[in-house]
Hints:
Number of strands of chain B: 11
Radius of gyration of chain B: 22 Å
Largest sheet of chain B: 5 strands, mixed
Strand content of chain A: 15-25%
Oligomer: heterodimer
Mean pLDDT of chain A: 83
Helix content of chain A: 25-40%
Amino acid sequence: MSTERDAQREQGAMTLRINPILCTAFGFCAEYVPELFTLDDWGYGWVRQSTVPPEQIELARQAVTLCPKRAVLLQRSAAPQPSAANSFKK
Amino acid sequence: MSVSALADQDALTRLCLLLSELKVRESLLEYRQRGGYSRTAWGLSSDEIRGAVHASGLSGRGGSHFPTGRKLDAVAGQSSPKVVLVNGAETEPGSQKDRWLLTLRPHLVLEGAQLAARAVGAAVVVLYLPEQDRRVQESVSSALTELRQERLSAVSWRIVAAPRRYVAGEESAAIQRANGKSAKPTLKPPYPADRGVGGRPTLVHNAETLANLPRILTAGPEAFQALGTPGHPGTMLVTVSGQVRKPGPLEVPAGAQLTDVLALAGAPQPTAIQAVLPGGIFAGWLAGAVLQQGVRLERDSLRAFGVSAGAGAITVVSDEVCGLCQAVAVLQYFAKESVQQCGPCTYGTRAMATLLLRVARGEGGAEDLSRIEHYATAMLPRRGACGHLDGAAAAARTTLRVFDRDITRHMRRGSCGRPWHVVVPELEEIDVH
């Protein structure tokens, strides 16, 4: 769909997100990798920017390893899917 | 196309419209006399069915507006066995249109589901129906009995009860329920098209979406496109509630002018309307003042006015009641209905409701409003596993803009001078003091 997304994929950009069901607000991500994470008002990890440039992928991997709940997800940027993210189907 | 022009359509293109003429459930015999289970539709191959659905431009009627043809392709391309799940949970407050359809014309939905199963190569159809609604369950059960007696059942059917709570209608929650777990959403991916009921690729569609298949495949995609607008063809079912004289479900051309639809339901003059929820509480508030700028019930038009397309649950708030009261009730509902799986949703929905109530009581200040705005636009969007939190954020964000004058009055005096009374259906009254 978007050529920008394709370009990112070719350059090896990845998507960083937190599985909100698993996250229980240990806060290790923001404490040890403040470049990529901060905390929200309730202490839950909050990804600053979901697209991780290649030079920060190593940092993102550290956050994945540090999280006691295994809630940090680093995924290859994927093509849009049917009924993606913000759809709230009923 | 105007709303009244619908009445002139012939029986085939207005399969749904007959709803307003029916008082009791349509039998299989009656359904077939009106064009159901046609040779035309059932003579098509699975590829031809998907091709016709693509050509029709049909999009999901449950709130996503995702192209139905693309969803069919995504599941058809997977390896067997596959499942079709008909989502009839309809948990949006005040919405009755799917229930109406399933009670009066269940065969339209069941044939649509069987055609979808044929299109993707599924042998099992799960019917996800509201557990509290006996009429829907009886109607669907009787219809299934008729299909079996007439040997028109090409799949095996399974009925799953949808609990009466807001997020139970979300597609991954429906799949969880069908898998014997509690009806709570899961993180995507995996998407249902990859892993759904029993771990199998699953096509999930709202009941109304599937009800469109028989007419598209019988009368052809062109007849379907002759209805509605180029960007949003066909018809759509809506439920109008709130301060109108004739509340209830209606079928209107997709992309209809909102003012036309409101007039059909006996709403006050647009100048006497304070605000409208054009698509349900998760789609956001629209100011009454913009009604005459040509808002249509179509994704792009609604987006231009700052709300999302929604699921056809329209609520009217006149200028005779406090508008901020409605907005607080909506945010409290989101907080109460959070299943508390995700921290940002549990605390974020609660925080927004608490802050807005404080403002309504005249105890809040500008810093509370900026906090709500920060939550709704920056801190909370896209941070839940499902769209519940995004819906709450959209409701809060549009509240600040649509009810800005009420907010100013409430901050000064703790009141806008109008009655504090909730008119949005199914929402609880709030104690303001």
